[in-house]
Every structure is written in C-alpha cells, then in structure tokens.
Design goal:
four-stranded mixed β-sheet
C-alpha cells in the first residue's frame, strides 16, 4: 500500500524545529521515550487505513503491519520536507540523549515491538525503588525508523549520509547509553539477512 492519500500530520508532531534537524543534532540525541513510542503506534493503529495494511500481503503475511509499511504510510508523510526525523520533531525544543539502543528487524510486527518496549520499561520500573532513581533511569530509545530522517527528499540528509554520521557506533560508545536491546517478534528473525544495524551493533559491542 502506497501513501497515495497520506495521513494528516498530527498536531503533536512539530512542522519545523529550531535545532536544525538530523544535519545538526548529533545521533546520540535522536532519542524517543516509551510514551512517545506508544503514542506514535497508537496514532497509526487507529487510522482508517491500518486494517488494509494489516491485510496487505506484499512480502509479508496478512496479520500485522511491519516497519516498512509504517515508514511508507506514516513516518515519511509526517516528516517529509522537515529535515528532521520523527524523534526530533517530537522533541523539537530539546532533543533527547539516547540511553538504550534498540536493534530490530524491519519485517517485525510493530505492535509486538511496542509490547516488547512496554514490557521492558514496566519490568525496569518494578526494579526501581525511589522516584529519584526512576526519573534518572527513564529510558530514551534509539529506534532507527523514528531516529533517522526517512524521506530522502533533500530536505535533510539521506540514509547513506546519516549512516556516515556513525549513529550506531557513536551511540554504543556513548557513556549515556547503558544498554542495547535486541527486539524479537514472531514475524521476523532478528538475525536474518538484510539486518546490517544488528550485525554492526554486535560487532561494535
């Protein structure tokens, strides 16, 4: 399914940023919170075109929406022309420093990905004893679909230019990044082919 009838950009997603977008903000600050991650998936999954995306069988089974579909039908239309990734548009006044790297397959079920992120955050919160510790340990995720500027429309860096910025390596080497999380779903093998970021992450680690 193509974005021939692109969805309207939600008001919460800023139309432009003062921080300069993915050209100016370092990759270590292309982060997104659990709440923002949940909000994005909720906005997409309640859209009228979502059931058609679920039923679509182009290179997938007809029971879920994957990252390729989310990118083409939501992320690209919402960010096109801005030069800023979805994460940077959601944090237009103050980009967030990444504390957790998420490695994943783009063929994954995006709702299962959300469930995995929420489960991880819930388990982490259950281990935290004080409000101060909870505030200090609130994770900020690097999730490449939301972190990188996807449209490749010359309004911002294209994918190859962003990879030249070494986002995966710089985040893993960052003192702020405490953990790399490899996401598994029932619809895609993380260690399958065409998963450069995963192999790169593990090699750097």
């Amino acid at each position: 399914m193509d974005n021939t009838d692109p969805p309207e950009r939600p008001d919460r997603i800023c139309h432009q940023c003062l921080h300069g977008g993915n050209w100016k903000v370092p990759p270590t600050q292309w982060g997104i919170t659990e709440e923002q991650f949940s909000w994005v998936i909720d906005q997409c999954s309640t859209d009228s075109r979502w059931p058609d995306l679920v039923r679509n069988v182009d290179y997938k089974t007809p029971d879920h929406v994957n990252a390729y579909q989310l990118s083409a039908n939501y992320v690209k239309p919402w960010t096109s022309g801005t030069g800023s990734s979805l994460a940077l548009l959601l944090n237009h006044s103050a980009p967030l420093t990444v504390t957790h790297m998420l490695s994943h397959s783009w063929a994954e079920d995006m709702q299962q990905v959300l469930e995995a992120v929420q489960t991880y955050c819930t388990d982490s919160r259950n281990k935290i004893m004080t409000d101060l510790e909870q505030a200090e340990q609130k994770p900020v995720f690097f999730f490449c679909l939301f972190a990188l500027y996807q449209p490749e429309d010359k309004a911002g860096p294209d994918i190859s230019q962003q990879l030249d910025m070494d986002p995966f390596g710089s985040i893993i080497r960052s003192s702020a990044c405490s953990l790399m999380v490899v996401l598994h779903t029932t619809t895609a093998r993380v260690y399958g082919k065409t998963l450069f970021p995963v192999f790169f992450d593990l090699d750097v680690c």
